[in-house]
């Protein structure tokens, strides 16, 4: 089912709150957090269970439906 969201809202939900402008691309199971590339480099590089969001959805995300 598709959610009726504006493009601005969708972009806001898919963007890292710490590193403005960076897209959320990974999920750290160790910390139960979504993270961008910069978050991964700074805080999650030693974590054992970091997975690309696209792998978790078994497809390439095309928007919020992919998450």
Automatic annotation (TrEMBL):
Q: Could you tell me which species this protein originates from? A: Dreissena polymorpha
**Has UniProt tagged this entry with the keyword Manganese?**
no
Q: Which GO terms describe its molecular function?
A: zinc ion binding
Give the Pfam families listed for this entry.
zf-B_box (PF00643)
Q: What is this protein called?
A: B box-type domain-containing protein
Q: Which residues form the B box-type domain?
A: 11-44
Could you tell me which Gene3D superfamilies the record lists for this protein?
A: Classic Zinc Finger (3.30.160.60)
Q: Which domain of life is it from?
A: Eukaryota
Q: Which taxonomic lineage does the organism of this UniProt entry have?
A: Eukaryota, Metazoa, Spiralia, Lophotrochozoa, Mollusca
Sorted alphabetically, which keywords does the UniProt record give?
Metal-binding, Zinc, Zinc-finger
Instruction: Kindly give the InterPro entries that the UniProt entry links to this protein.
Output: Znf_B-box
